[in-house]
Amino acid sequence: MDDLESWHAVARDPSPVEAAILAETVEQLMDRLDDRGRQILALSLQGCTPQEVSSQVGQSVRTVQRVLARVKKWLENPS
Questions:
Q1: Nearest alpha-carbon partner for 57 in 33, 24, 22, 26
Q2: How far is residue 69's CA from residue 39's CA, in Å, rounded to a whole number?
Q3: For the chain: N or C, fewer Cβ within 10 A?
């Protein structure tokens, strides 16, 4: 599979099962975060950069990066 084919595989809409799994995963992540963390994650999932999130939530870029790193760690090592 070349790069273009792999991009199309990623660019497709999720199946209903994949969408349900994604929604459940996001809900579980949100449950683990405080209000600030939920806002940071929501803005990030909407495509905002850490700098944009920082300015919208009134936190430093470093705080935004720490929250997103924690979420990434949870996704890589669910427990």
A1: 33
A2: 15
A3: C
